[in-house]
Fold this protein.
Amino acid sequence: MPNGDPAYAAENLARIRRRLRRECGMPPQDALSVGMRTIAFSFYFFAMEIILISGLSGSGKSVALHVLEDRGYYCVDNLPVDILGGLVDLLQVEGYARAAVAIDVRSGAAIDTLPEKIRILRQAGHLVSFLFLDTQDDTLIKRYSETRRRHPLASDARTLVEAISEERCRLRPLAGLGHHMDTSGLRAAQLREWTLQVAAAPAQEGLTLHIQSFGFKHGLPRDADLVFDARCLPNPYYEAVLRPLTGLDAPVIEFLEAEASVLKMRADLHRFLHDWLPAYRLDNRASLTVAIGCTGGQHRSVYLAEWLGRQCQRLVARVLVRHRAIDGTGVPPFPPA
């Protein structure tokens, strides 16, 4: 964007006034008043950092939004898609550099225009990240039963199960726009940590590689594009001294790296991604999630995910490593497998 250009300033002022009047229903005099304050910012255009959050109702969007608010983001929940551009313009006028916006199925048919809205924001120079939160149906049903809250699509003629199914169908096209995260079985602390991990990742075009460990005993993660099974490898669990530890701990790492089968599997995984990541990039994917599982998600899969994440930093610009069965402190939230 040209800074200090009078023609650009005038064009920006007119554009914001029109959008305020059209999308926000603001009277002409108020639109003029707000619009005039944009002149100074027109001379010093800055790209905003914008995190858009969507996903199934009950999947944790509020938790993600709150942690970003605590980190200084200007946060808006349940924003209609139609006024997203107007909101960004207003926040620029007020000088906000970072914003997080939650958009859900209550936007109705307009939700289908979100990909185009994101494209326009990026074309304008803004750094836009997209986070889609997903959850297994049985987890959602349990959460709604515990909180006794009403699903936004539920009605006298539509059961909770039917409402969840309808919402999943409507939002399915959005799942591939950016970071796809399955929150089933996650603690709130884990979701907060993973959200901050997404916020810290550079918001730029190209493929983001997610590598996550999980335990098969807890179920397959919904967000996985590729799943690899490490249960055939020697299990540190059967060593009493290693049982309470995780794949992040040096004794477990030493145990696993002494096994030829572990070294071969990690080399094979790295070779597979080295050979096939270019093809996924050419497919214009925003993200690729590789899930590595062992029995409990505590030892073997954690080690492999960490090692593979370090190696893949040479292959793609953004690599995010996360562990479903241990939290940020390395403590298993589930009983050891």
